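Risk mitigation, structural track. In case the binding assays with iron/sulfur cluster fail to produce interpretable data, a predicted complex structure has been prepared as a fallback.
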Amino acid sequence: MARPENETQAVSVRDALQRLHQEITSCHACNLRNGARLPVPGSKIAEIPDLPRVPLLIVGEAPGREEDIQGAPFVGWAGKFLRNVLRRTYLTDLTYITNLVKCRPPENRDPEPQEIIACSPHLDRQIEIARPHIILALGRFSAGYIWEKFLHEKENRPFPGITRVNGQVFPLERNDERLYVSFFFHLAYVLRQARKGNEALPKRFRNHFYGLRIMLEDYGYPMRPKRYR
Ligand code: SF4
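Fallback model:
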């Protein structure tokens, strides 16, 4: 199966995202930076894909304690689970990961609306550069933001809440291209359910990724990428 687009463009997309990471690292646009050790611009479990665009963009909510220490998203216990899911679904090389808010809120509290307003231009730029085929928002804040950005007008309704859209995929046309927007619960919530003995939700989470992987095959991405971590 043909590798989508060409390698020359691939380098420029990755470089552009890396440059943006540098800018985000020096951002002080809101008070969260004062309490954070390291801003968390994006990726790591899955490095920025070596492709002309990002097939799957995962948007989490905000860094937690481990992310704040290491400066990368999903590096704690939730990250271990996500890494495993990406590997098992052959999505590691096709995924770029970021958060809605790049600096850790104190005591892992929810991000405030003004912090989301201050930080979301970074995510907007990441989306612009990455030109993802699929965006997967994890958690209610990132899901709410992504819904309002892409789906409010099309669906003619405000964000209906994460429970209503959990596990769903919405197709839309953007810049004359097909974009899929999808949602799932916050990964920490999924894993808390697993610890309580509810294995159904983690299983749904894994199956959701299998579904997204199959959708990417329609774009010409091979079932088994060359590299497999
Ligand atoms: S949370 Fe976002 S807007 Fe606030 S300082 Fe960090 S990078 Fe800048």
